[in-house]
Amino acid sequence: MAEFKPTPSQKLAIEDQGGELLVSAAAGSGKTRVLTERLMRWITEGNAPRSIDNFLIITFSTAAAAELRSRISEELSARAAADPGSKRLRRESALVRRAQIGTIHSFCSALLREYAGRAGIAPDFAIADEDRARELRRLSLETVLEAAYAEAEPGFIQLADTVGAGTDDRRLESLVLELHGKLQSHARPGDWAARQSELFETGAEDAADTPWGRELLESAADELLWWAGEFDELVRSLAGFEKMGKAYVPSFSETASSLRGAAKRAAEGWDALREALPIEFPRLGTLRGGGEDPELAERAKARREACKKAAKRIEKGFTLPSEQLLRDMRATAPAMRALLKLVGDFDAEYTRRKRRRSLLDFADLEHLAARLLTEPDGSPTETAREVSRRYAEVMVDEYQDVSLVQDMIIRAVSDSGRRLFMVGDVKQSIYRFRLADPTIFLKKYESYADAPQPEGVPRRVFLRESFRSRGEVVDAVNAVFGCLMSKGLGEMEYDERARLRAGLEYPGVVPVPELVAVPLPGADEDEERPDKIEVEAAYAARMMRRLVETGAKISEGGVLRPLGYGDIAVLLRSVNVSGPVWRRVLAREGVPVEAGQSGGFFEAPEVAVILSLLAIIDNPRQDVALISVLRSELFGFTNDELTEIRLMSGEGDFYAALSARAEVSEKARAFLDTLDRLRDFARDSELATLIWEIYESLGCMALCSAMRDGEGRRARLLRLFELARSFETTGWRGLRRFLDWLRSMRERGEEPAFPDEDGGGAVRIMSIHRSKGLEFPVVFIGDTARQFNRSDLRGSVLVHPELGLGPKFTDAARGIEYPTLARRAVANRLERELLSEELRLLYVAMTRARERLFITCTFADPQKTMDKLAPAAQEHIPAQALLPMRSMAEWLICAALGTGGRALTLSIGGDEEGVPRRVTPAAQPEPERTGEEAVPVDFDALLAWRYPHAGAETLPSKLTATELKSLAEPDAESAELLPRAARTFRRPDIALAARRLTAAERGTATHLALRYLELGALTTPEAAREAVDRLAAAGKLSAREAAAVDAAGLCRFALSPLGRRITAAPRVLREFPFALLCPAERFFPGAEGEELLLQGVVDCCLIEPDGAVIVDYKTDRIAPEAAPERAKRYAAQLETYAWAVSRITGLAVKAKIVYFLQPGEAVEL
Predict the structure, then answer these.
(1) What is the side-by-side strand order in the sheet with 764-767?
(2) What confidence score (pLDDT) does residue 650 get?
(3) CA 867 to chain centre
(4) Binning pLDDT at 50, 70 and 90, where does residue 945 land?
């Protein structure tokens, strides 16, 4: 083993004892080695060395705990081998397996079993798995909501009417579960809820006297003062020029004074700031010829326009006076108290159900441990003091990711923190959505003294050296975050304490990291289009191929070697959204993707077929699963053979028809024999054994090997086998439970992880979150132009651990709602925290790279985007300029421009070779002149002027195909989802089932049924009814919708010539959506030169060898003889569908058919 030579800061972190120690360890700084060496020093050195079982070591994942235990064991074994006579080292090596190294939850579980009596629980409790916990939460929520409706307390009725919007309880249920989940970060959620109830009973006379008002006033004052400073700088620059100073300085000076004055009034109160608004922007003087420095003049005007927008936004936030805002807060108080009570009742019911089953969830472990170890005021209990005496030191890894309740537990068992060693990096805190609170680390980071210090004084050590990344990557990270990160965005300054230092010498020189913007002409910058991802992934693939094929080198053990695809990792912000596209495109472009990653696990055909086979082994009377297995490569039934099977039995399910067919078909008989054999085998076999029998008896592995991506297919089947084995080790049994477990995993969006494959020679694709703690020779960070997800800021009630609840105010009389003072304050804080986490996520992504780093993004016009962002670019960009930006890519472009591209180059891609070109931002377009010209003015001519394109003002920007008919006359199927008539809010309709569906609702239900049903199976009205009922059971339709569907009409359609034509078609597109730019003159005469967005959904499109056929279903109740005339009303709609389908598919549309389901008439237009 190579000798470890610590740096001075590492040595200090290893040796400093005598008090609470915080180690701020930058990415790649060797924090795990430091923790291990510190432990070794405790147990091997000094006059009174401690034993390893005198330490509590907390990590934040089971895998990290196992890795750390392994490292400690290896270190002790190496030292014992070097000193074979040491009994102490041999003893400590034997004790490693008993050492308390684990997660916070494993510690809490052991503690509660030991002190079960004091905690008031049974010691034989079990940990509830997520599926069981979800079911208990559902039952608990039903119970408390039924009780609340029965009690009908006015506050609850107000809550139901406002949050539920008078429709159903789904929004209210989601809100209760969300609030309950967020409260778990507090040691005593009930105390927090009580404080919130009191907060809404505000007696304040000015909004500034509430925490919400203070939050908004301080934020506004900070922004106003920042803009004042910006204008002061511009005034100083402009004043050095005679012409520009004369034209611009008076206006800029007056605006700066107005900004400072408003900021000063913000300190006096809410209404005081309102009086100081709006900000003054006096007219600029005339400046001929662009002035002495045209570039400075243009920048000044651009900043002035940006300030105007910011000022208008601030003014909008202070429109209402304190009196009205506080009145609205008091009006929402009953509903918020009812919400807090409902959450409390839910928690009590959920706890009761868990205790009855001797179950605890992870939140229970934390809360019960916190109550066992701390008094209500947070001080340690006698139990905590007793436990603390066991440990010489408590060591916590990844301390930046602790929650409030976890920190309370840790401090309680470490002698109130006096024997606490914490290591982490707040710049890598990316788990706020899991209730992590980075401010806990930050407060210590900012307030502790630098080590060494006298005994008992909390101290800190900074580990800055990166032993991972080469200097070029380190320089890029420092340049980007020195430019972007601040207390306003990122919650800390990226100063000398935070800057990385390159700790390793790499051979040779490589290009600096590169930010590549890929053009996608015609795209809307605000639109998240799938082809944006595809174009970007294709270009990244070309860059990867160029790197590998041109012999790029990387270092390994100090020696250069050729780069391979296995050295490359792609990191994505949203791997569930973008990952499948990247995997597919890379494979298409000839770039190998790691086995198991070429597509979603559950969507993989081989996995889907095996799961369908397992489903019919459990219960063969499942039509969809049975047909899926029959059509698969394993059994190879054709569409004609499936039709023949269906025709064997007009009644019953498909299994009954298959059994009848088996009497005359050898192929059907062989399938049933195989199925019967597997069902018999399943009765006496373990689940994993059954799956392996399926693989062997049906030749699944050989079949996969003969197909494209054979290695990946085999890897997925092996992973399914491993999942079955791990499922049974948890104590669960049964095929149906296994399938339910996988179904719930899929619904949660979870993908089974594949074991890492060393030297696989293929690109790895993963989320940035999953990459934390890993490193790769070459990193591509993709899809960075994806807009930040602010959906969490749109909930009916927002929640913040400090500011509390942020509801909307609902005016039931007028049917409107708008944000309260509290909501705006909570949203303001949550948005800053969300964007700070996004910035830290970018830091994690960039610091995964060892040698080469590429960042890609896609814009419609990259050069235009760069030019637009250029005015904000500078060496250190303040948070106020960055917060309005919409994506990581915009931040990165500003950083690259602001630092001159020295450490992060800025390029535009799009070429076929994957060699992007370096660019500089183009000159800003000259804005409209703002000065007054001394020329004669013809006021009569000006007043008589008319806008030459007045007709375009009335054109819609978007048009749906169904609106074409409704432009002429109303259509029930295209009725507005929300009527424009005034609405009143009401309680959820308990007797909803008694109300008949409207015509539009019946039409929607029928369209949904036709979307999912296989027409070939609808051979009788009874079969159609059973198929519709199965859709309802699967959750595709509600029971009321299913009952409203005309099963006889569906059967009549399926057996009609058109229905049989659809069944026989080689390819059928159902519910085919489209969105295309279309010349407006197609629909609005006189609109030449204008375009609008045309959207629609084609009910059914048949792709036949000689063209396409469009079918549109209508549920109009008409006589058969009226069908031809009624169909003419839909001619424009179907003509539009034909135009769109032809544009998208490139096929001619040979027929357009309207099918009226009620009379069973088809009319070709």
Answers:
(1) 764-767, 568-572, 776-782, 849-859, 514-519, 905-908, 917-918
(2) 65
(3) 29
(4) low
For residue range 223-249, list pLDDT tens digits in order. 999 999 999 999 999 998 989 999 999
Give the closest residue to 658 by CA, choosing from 635, 691, 633, 681: 635
Residue for token digits 């490693």?
96
Report pLDDT digits (tens) over 701-721: 888 877 876 777 888 888 888
Q: How far apart, in whole angstroms, are the C-alpha atoms of residue 482 and residue 459?
A: 25
Whether omega for the bond prior to residue 278 falls within 30 degrees of 0, making it cis, is yes
Calpha distance 669→671 (Å, rounded): 5
Residue pair 491/438 in contact by the 8 Å Cβ criterion: yes
CA distance readout (Å), 785 to 440, 525, 572, 1037 = 31, 9, 11, 37
3-class state of residue 569 by DSSP: strand
CA quadruple 961, 967, 969, 975: dihedral, nearest 10: 60
The tally of CA atoms less than 13 A away on the side-chain side of residue 739 is 18
Handedness of CA 937, 941, 944, 947 (dihedral sign): negative
Q: Are 617 and 678 spatial neighbours (Cβ–Cβ below 8 Å)? A: yes
Cβ neighbours of residue 557 under 8 Å, at least 6 residues apart? none
Which amino acid, residue 295?
A: E
- Residue 461 CA to residue 445 CA, distance in Å, equals 9
Query: Is 55's pLDDT higher than 90?
Result: yes
What pLDDT does residue 1145 have?
Answer: 76
Single-letter amino acid code for the residue at 387: V
What are the beta bridge partners of residue 640?
none
Helix (H/G/I), strand (E/B), else coil: 430 = coil
How many other C-beta atoms are found inside a 10 Å radius of the C-beta of residue 792?
14
370 backbone dihedrals φ, ψ, rounded to 5°: -65, -40
Q: Which of 106, 183, 193, 186 is nearest to 403 (CA)?
A: 186
256-306 pLDDT tens trace: 999 999 999 999 999 999 999 999 999 999 888 888 888 889 889 988 999
Looking up tokens 């597919």, which residue turns up? 584
Q: Is 815 exposed, middle or buried (0-12, 13-18, 19+ CB in 10 A)?
A: middle
Token pair of 316, please? 């909008």
For helices 654-661 and 639-647, what crossing angle results, to 10°? 90
Tokens of 553: 């080198």
Q: Coil, strand or helix: which one is 470?
A: coil
Phi, psi of 62 (to 5 degrees): -65, -40
Please tell me whether the overall predicted TM-score, pTM, comes out greater than 0.85 for this model: no
Kindly state the helix (H) or strand (E) to which residue 488 belongs, with its residue range: none
Work out the end-to-end distance of the chain between its first and last CA atoms, rounded to an integer number of angstroms: 82
